[in-house]
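Data card: per-record layout.
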Amino acid sequence: MEKPADFKQDSDLESVAPAELSEGATSVVTSSSFRDQLRAVKANKRACLAAFACSTTPILIGYDLTLIGSIIANTEFVHHFGCYDEAQQVWSLPANYQLVWTIVQYVSAMSSALGSGYLNDTLGRRVGFFTTVCLTISGTFVELFSPNWKVWIVAKVLMGAAMGSMQANTQTYVSEITPTSIRGLALSLFQFWIIIGQLIATCVLDFFCLPETKGLSFARLDALFEARTPARKFV
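The structure for this 235-residue chain is written out next.
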């Protein structure tokens, strides 16, 4: 009777109790316990810290996607990029502006996500991360200094490319450097940080849409912020 072939295990796997395998049998690896996961984290501290730091990048997705639909609530933004209606004597942001910004950003994100896979395989993960950082910084500066809505389109292209690149880089890198026993937990943080980004964007927009804040005390500002943000009461 021929002996079954030895199974090659990853270096980060915990030792598994030997079990007899009959011919044609399928090996099953049981899920690790919480203690095993803690031991894996302690044994691979640097890798886990690097994975945790990289997994925070999805904050960009949550933050920027929330701004796409909520930025029109910011009065200063509407005054800067919008149009003044003489008949109704109000400032408004044309719907076609928002449509162009949204389409451009999502198309840029999809294209960048597809291209980042090839970039990661050819030049490495580090180059991919540096590309994401450069795109994010460039997009941020263009957004800050955009004189009109057309230049803002360039910012949306850059930020969309940064989002797509980040989605391709982060999950690939995290899955490669984390121990197998906590890989699922590390990858699940992706959605967690997206929600944190959405929360931050909501708080920022809510704060800057408050009434005139000049001359108000910190206690009064805090009360105004709490009144407009129910979640603040539980912090």
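Known properties of this structure: Residues 217 and 226 are 14 Å apart (CA to CA). The chain has one domain: 44-209+216-234.

See the next section for split statistics.
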